[in-house]
């Protein structure tokens, strides 16, 4: 395998990076979900080639990109779709909001599993929906679904806005859990919007299962959302896609663009195409680097901060840390920011019950992860 360099720190200060620009320059940012690595060399090369063409008018997604996605779904997940099932979008978040716009009416129930990515947690507010929160169950081995609570929540919901793999816990739902969710959705006539943006970031050889791939019946009521953005670190290029195999649902989904959700950025399409076509070795190398970071983080947390609870991520580059037992004088995000100059995402962003949690982004060179841990140590030592 070609070796790829994930250790070099690429300076992002002064490059309009949201992650690095949101705080003063002495703060180490370990919050928003993008990585501090350069994109795969083949993606950079494809973009360079496109830039050199020099004409950047409106564009259309190429048939070859559709075919590539169709082949990928078959090869990676055993899921048969057709090119027409794919709807290109400028982002996954616009995608789930389009779906909510098209499939709900005010006061309908919207089921979510907490803790969860903030735009999923708060999406109900845009459309006047009732938020039905069913927490994931946590144990030392990881997170699982509470099947009865989920089923009860489905009974009160029109739509389930699902996140698999799950942000912030890094949980990967098992085939059995997905089967339960699908059966429950079918039984209660619930539409599933499945945000699978992290689907290529499964660790330790796990395999992603799109919920719509379980059966034609669940596919019929599912809008699946995916993107190359997280895995290949091209989130700023704003390209994503939905897979909607039910033609009526797809037609309604497309109609809900309402002139607000525009076509996709030319460079985003180009980068996604190159990523899917020629960056699989890079992705393999990335996954093993992330596994190394996750394991290092896990062992350092246990060694340095035994009071912090962390469940190993099964996917993504996000770690969900319970800091309750530290008994801090302020919420942990504020504490580590003010005293350690390291920025995490606040647990309360992911649900009201999670104020004592932080989400740490370990998608960075190991040296930055070490620096982040040192800053946490300094913050905690400053308290004594
Ligand atoms: C679960 C999840 N969905 C959606 C998004 C945002 O996707 P996009 O930038 O394509 O709207 C993120 C970004 O962090 C995410 O973690």
Automatic annotation (TrEMBL):
<dbReference type="GO" id="GO:0030170">
    <property type="term" value="F:pyridoxal phosphate binding"/>
</dbReference>
<dbReference type="GO" id="GO:0047804">
    <property type="term" value="F:cysteine-S-conjugate beta-lyase activity"/>
</dbReference>
<feature type="domain" description="Aminotransferase class I/classII large">
    <location>
        <begin position="32"/>
        <end position="374"/>
    </location>
</feature>
<dbReference type="InterPro" id="IPR015422">
    <property type="entry name" value="PyrdxlP-dep_Trfase_small"/>
</dbReference>
<dbReference type="InterPro" id="IPR027619">
    <property type="entry name" value="C-S_lyase_PatB-like"/>
</dbReference>
<protein>
    <recommendedName>
        <fullName>cysteine-S-conjugate beta-lyase</fullName>
        <ecNumber>4.4.1.13</ecNumber>
    </recommendedName>
</protein>
<dbReference type="InterPro" id="IPR015421">
    <property type="entry name" value="PyrdxlP-dep_Trfase_major"/>
</dbReference>
<dbReference type="Pfam" id="PF00155">
    <property type="entry name" value="Aminotran_1_2"/>
</dbReference>
<comment type="similarity">
    <text>Belongs to the class-II pyridoxal-phosphate-dependent aminotransferase family. MalY/PatB cystathionine beta-lyase subfamily.</text>
</comment>
<keyword id="KW-0456">Lyase</keyword>
<dbReference type="InterPro" id="IPR051798">
    <property type="entry name" value="Class-II_PLP-Dep_Aminotrans"/>
</dbReference>
<keyword id="KW-0663">Pyridoxal phosphate</keyword>
<dbReference type="InterPro" id="IPR004839">
    <property type="entry name" value="Aminotransferase_I/II_large"/>
</dbReference>
<dbReference type="InterPro" id="IPR015424">
    <property type="entry name" value="PyrdxlP-dep_Trfase"/>
</dbReference>
């Amino acid at each position: 395998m070609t070796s790829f360099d994930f250790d070099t720190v690429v300076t992002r200060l002064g490059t309009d990076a949201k992650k690095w620009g949101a705080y003063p320059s002495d703060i180490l940012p370990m919050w928003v979900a993008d990585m501090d690595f350069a994109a795969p060399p083949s993606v950079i090369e494809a973009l360079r080639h496109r830039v050199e063409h020099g004409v950047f008018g409106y564009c259309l997604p190429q048939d070859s990109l559709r075919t590539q996605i169709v082949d990928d779904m078959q090869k990676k997940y055993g899921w048969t779709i057709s090119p027409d099932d794919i709807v290109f979008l400028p982002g996954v978040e616009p995608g789930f909001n389009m779906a909510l716009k098209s499939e709900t009416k005010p006061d309908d129930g919207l089921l979510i599993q907490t803790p969860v990515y903030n735009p999923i947690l708060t999406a109900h507010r845009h459309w006047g929906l009732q938020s039905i929160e069913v927490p994931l169950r946590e144990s030392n081995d990881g997170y699982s679904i509470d099947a009865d609570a989920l089923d009860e929540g489905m009974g009160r919901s029109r739509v389930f806005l699902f996140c698999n793999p799950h942000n912030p816990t890094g949980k990967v739902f098992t085939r059995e859990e997905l089967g339960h969710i699908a059966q429950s959705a079918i039984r209660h006539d619930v539409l599933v919007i499945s945000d699978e943006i992290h689907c290529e970031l499964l660790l330790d050889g796990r395999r992603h299962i799109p919920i719509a791939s379980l059966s034609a019946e669940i596919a019929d009521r599912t809008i699946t959302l995916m993107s190359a953005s997280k895995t290949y670190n091209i989130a700023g290029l704003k390209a994503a896609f939905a897979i909607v195999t039910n033609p009526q649902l797809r037609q309604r989904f497309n109609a809900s663009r309402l002139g607000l959700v525009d076509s996709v950025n030319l460079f985003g399409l180009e980068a996604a195409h190159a990523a899917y076509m020629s960056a699989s070795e890079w992705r393999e190398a990335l996954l093993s680097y992330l596994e190394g970071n996750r394991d290092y983080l896990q062992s350092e947390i246990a060694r340095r901060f035994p009071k912090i609870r962390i469940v190993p991520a099964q996917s993504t580059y996000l770690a969900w840390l319970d800091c309750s037992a530290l008994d801090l004088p302020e919420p942990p995000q504020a504490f580590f920011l003010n005293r350690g100059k390291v920025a995490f995402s606040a647990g309360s962003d992911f649900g009201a019950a999670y104020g004592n949690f932080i989400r740490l982004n370990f998608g960075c060179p190991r040296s930055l992860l070490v620096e982040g841990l040192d800053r946490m140590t300094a913050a905690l030592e400053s308290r004594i």
